[in-house]
Amino acid sequence: MQDKLLGMMRHSINNIVGNGKIGVAFSGGVDSTLVSQVCSEMNYDVTLLTVGFAGSHDVMFAKKVNDLLQLPHHTLEINTATFPDVVKKIGNTINTQNLSWNENCIAFYYISQLATRLDIDMVVTANGIDELFCGYDRYRDIFSGGSKAILEAMREKLNNETSMMKAVNIVTSEFGVRIVQPLLAQDFAEYAITIPISEKIHGPDDMVRKHIIRELACRVGVPEMSYNKRKKALQYGSKIHKELLKLR
């Protein structure tokens, strides 16, 4: 099963990314590290991109993980003084009250800003893994509802993520940077949905989840500190959520 999953992942990346220099949105967590490692093994010219406020978890952890990966890696420290202006600009651009959408658009605004400084016009993300492999706590909450409830939630989350990433690309177009999500592609999603739920989540008390992804990450050489790490969403790891709430 891991062979098929890895093959589908490579196929989707190849179809969507094409050739050339790419950035990878990188937190050091299992998802972004797995995508980085796979892209590197596919001989893409990979540069890891990390953003966050000073002292944020993602900036510090990403550096530790890449000390082992040894890929080109750049970080951008978010300027507290200009952050409110960026928040206002993005709010006017996407015009939504959805906090998660705003937070992700802000994060990718800064990622794209960093990418353009490095002459990178395409950034690859690991979006889709949490949705397809039960990465969110919500999957624990609905586990007792069985596979039907989990599959319904999965499709709902996929639709939301796909729509959100369209909003993200509206924001990042200011920099001429395209954010791509190979693991949200239809072929990959359709395959991933067929993987047994038991390979993704073991029960309502499963705090780790995404088991087949973690096993695959171990197999392709992702550092243990990454593939065993519990989920910390981009907006929290970068401190964007915390700083955004201060403005409300």
> Average pLDDT across residues?
93
| Whole-angstrom Rg | 17 Å
**What composes the largest sheet?**
5 strands, parallel
Gap between N and C termini: 46 Å
Number of helices: 13
Question: In short, what is this structure?
Answer:
This protein is of the alpha/beta class and 248 residues long. It contains 13 helices and five strands.
Would you kindly provide a written description of the structure presented here, covering whatever features stand out?
The protein has 248 residues and is α/β, with parallel strands linked by helices. It is 57% helix and 10% strand. It is built from 13 helices and 5 strands. It has a 5-stranded parallel β-sheet with strand order 3-2-1-4-5, with helices on both faces. Helix 2 (30-41) links the parallel strand 1 and strand 2 (45-52). Helix 2 (30-41) crosses helix 10 and helix 5 crosses helix 8 (146-172). It is globular.
Question: What labels would you give this structure?
Answer:
13 helices, globular, 248 residues, five-stranded parallel beta sheet
List the helices and strands and how they pair.
Blueprint lengths: L1 H16 L3 E5 L4 H12 L3 E8 L4 H13 L3 E5 L5 H12 L4 H19 L4 E3 L4 H4 L4 H5 L4 H27 L5 E3 L5 H9 L16 H9 L4 H4 L6 H4 L2 H7 L2
Parallel strand pairs: 1-2, 1-4, 2-3, 4-5
Helix pairs in contact: 1-9, 2-10, 4-5, 5-8
